[in-house]
């Protein structure tokens, strides 16, 4: 097998894995939403089709770098992924998971906040915020530029942080779970967790809902650390509130892509 063919097949396999994972997890939580809150997604068929389209495009963008890195690890020993569970102390397994999540969260916060500046928002991030309100299918509904900023994170971190496949699997599972559940329109975690001490530092759907309602706050992915440190944490959202639709309403909510008159805003 030639190198190019090997790279192509690895990238194709990873793309299919990401796409199928998305369809299964998002589809599962869409069904859970139908059971938990019947009619919540009523009238959003066109939006959901758009979310599916952009998410499947994103699956390819996520799959290509992951496939290249997987091929390099398998063929040439790239990355710091190790298969011998005892190559590092067992305590390193949870530590590596936490380090990866913390690094991913920091990258996400700052790239996400940058994408809420007027030009990047109009160019790319507006695709994600076109879901008003988002559904369980919106987890990967990104413009290709935004998808690329997310696709490089884990493939880069495995060159920096020694990780066992178990740890990598946990990180990818958390990433997938939070990406879907934070957009599905209701809170699956118990209120005692969300409103308790842990909820002051962990991001769930209640926290991310306010980001989609007000735009200029709650930029984090897993943890509220950067939002609290940088003064962008606005607390938990309200799932009963109606999403901003008009340009005027969106500007009032803080959408950086529009001003009150519908023109691009220069605030950022």
TrEMBL record:
CC annotations in GO: membrane
Cite the entry's keywords alphabetically.
Membrane, Transmembrane, Transmembrane helix
InterPro entries attached here?
Fatty_acid_hydroxylase, Sterol_Desaturase_Related
Q: Does the keyword Membrane apply?
A: yes
The record's region (Disordered) falls at 248-268
Gene Ontology molecular functions: iron ion binding; oxidoreductase activity
Q: One Pfam match, by short name? A: FA_hydroxylase
Which intervals hold domain Fatty acid hydroxylase?
Answer: 98-232
Query: What residue intervals traverse the membrane?
Result: 6-31, 52-71, 91-110, 166-186
Alphabetical GO biological process terms: lipid biosynthetic process
Where in or outside the cell? Membrane
PANTHER family, per database record: STEROL DESATURASE
Q: What is this protein called?
A: Sterol desaturase/sphingolipid hydroxylase (Fatty acid hydroxylase superfamily)
* Species assigned in the record: Sphingomonas prati
């Amino acid at each position: 097998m030639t190198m190019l063919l090997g790279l192509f097949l690895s990238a194709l396999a990873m793309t299919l894995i990401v796409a199928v994972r998305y369809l299964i997890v998002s589809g599962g939580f869409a069904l859970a939403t139908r059971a938990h809150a019947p009619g919540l997604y009523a009238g959003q068929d066109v939006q959901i089709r758009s979310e599916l389209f952009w998410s499947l495009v994103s699956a390819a963008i996520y799959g290509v770098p992951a496939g290249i890195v997987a091929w390099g690890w398998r063929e040439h020993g790239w990355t710091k992924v190790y298969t011998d569970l005892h190559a590092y102390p067992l305590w390193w397994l949870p530590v590596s998971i936490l380090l990866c999540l913390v690094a991913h969260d920091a990258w996400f916060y700052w790239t996400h906040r940058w994408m809420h500046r007027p030009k990047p928002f109009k160019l790319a991030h507006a695709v994600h915020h076109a879901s008003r309100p988002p559904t369980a299918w919106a987890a990967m509904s990104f413009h290709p530029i935004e998808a690329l900023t997310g696709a490089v994170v884990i493939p880069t971190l495995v060159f920096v942080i020694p990780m066992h496949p178990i740890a990598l699997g946990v990180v990818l599972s958390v990433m997938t779970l939070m990406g879907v559940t934070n957009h599905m329109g209701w809170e699956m975690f118990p209120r005692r967790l969300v409103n308790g001490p842990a909820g002051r530092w962990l991001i769930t759907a209640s926290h991310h809902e306010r980001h989609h309602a007000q735009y200029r706050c709650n930029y984090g992915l897993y943890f509220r650390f950067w939002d609290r440190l940088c003064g962008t944490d606005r607390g938990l959202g309200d799932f009963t509130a109606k999403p901003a639709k008009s340009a005027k309403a969106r500007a009032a909510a803080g959408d950086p892509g529009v001003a009150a008159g519908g023109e691009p805003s220069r605030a950022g």
